[in-house]
Amino acid sequence: MRVEVEINGERHAADVEPRTLLSDFIRHHAGLTGTKVGCEHGVCGACTVQLDGEPVRSCLMLAVQANGRSLRTIEALGAEHPLARAFHERHALQCGFCTSGFLMSIEPFLRDHPDPSEAEIREALAGNLCRCTGYQGIVEAVEQAARQDMPDPDEGAL
Amino acid sequence: MKPAPFEYSAPESVDEALGLLGEDVKVLAGGQSLVPLLNFRLARPERIVDINRIEELAYIREGEDGSLRIGAVARQAELERSQLVADRWPLLASAVRLVGHPQIRSRGTVCGSVAHADPTAELPVALTALDARFHVRSRAGARTLSAAELFAGPLTTTLAADELLTEIEVPPLPADARCGFCEHARTHGDFAIAGAALMHAPDRAAVALLGAGWTPVRATAAERALSSGAGADEVASLAAELVEDEYRAALMRALVKRAASEASA
Questions:
Q1: Assembly ipTM
Q2: Domains in chain B: how many in total?
Q3: CATH number of the domain residue B38 falls in
Q4: What is the 3-state secondary structure (H, E, C) of B197-256?
């Protein structure tokens, strides 16, 4: 089936089987390998991307379901984004496999909760697993990022 | 893993969708339970009918009779953000916040959670406490079921292969109703081990339990006690009598008590 998706403002089209997962479309057809595939059953959060501004598990969607929709992946954020910088400065990653999923989840969370409490941050992080850090650095990075101005997602990468 | 091959249809109307349903067909709504089953190949349907493009089913609104109407592709996130639901059906607003994670609720649907009938799911339990009615359609006609008529066992409902759950209707709460929903899960967002939905009004009470059986269970003795003015301890003990396992019973007692105190706060 023909699938056309806008990812980070660019159009990507391919013929895929209906069973192709969105995560695989993003990595294999669009060639955007910043999105990681972990558990493939919606538990680990590594494959989180934004669909029309909302965080979703790309392993729990079929690529055909995203036909005609607009996606945003980690590549849109860029290394100088305040969230990425906060993760770097607070040692909120070690191997980095989970990081793109965390950032894609946290960006819309901070949009909706500009001044989150630690409890709200921990609840927001619960859908993403990190096996390296023990989460403390991640919580601190989100607290740091929350104190800074976020660029408008519609403006693209910094 | 990846799903086994299937045929895919994305109808744009209910009538078109009903024409595609039948044996060996699965309805895809939010996909937050179905797609993991496909990925594991625990489900290998011949055809997937994706109802996400049926705009006539994407709504949460108040009916003319003051009831809440939830269409088959209304997202859990929409329920969570609805001011109408927060004001008038706060039990649903509390329950939905405990469903999975934000990334799950942004896709997951209320009706999908009901049709999937996971015994650890929050929304079926809250809807059971609220005496929700489930509207079902097929090519042959339409019928309306109560929770007791719909939920048949773990991951099992009485929906036939050619039927689609199109709408959930939640009656208005009685005047001065107070509600509480509490659960215990080992980590936030995980499947709950036990939970309780409680509604208390001057002339009516409802207590529905998660983890007391393979379907949502109404604790009728606890409801009668609550109606006649019994304290939270007595209500909680009566509800916990429905649970055999000692640990779960202790958990249930604590959770019902907490839900009762949330409702009276």
A1: 0.93
A2: 3
A3: 3.30.43.10
A4: EEEEECCEEEEEEECCCCCCEECHHHHHHHHCCCCHHHHHHHHHCCCCCHHHHHHHHHHH
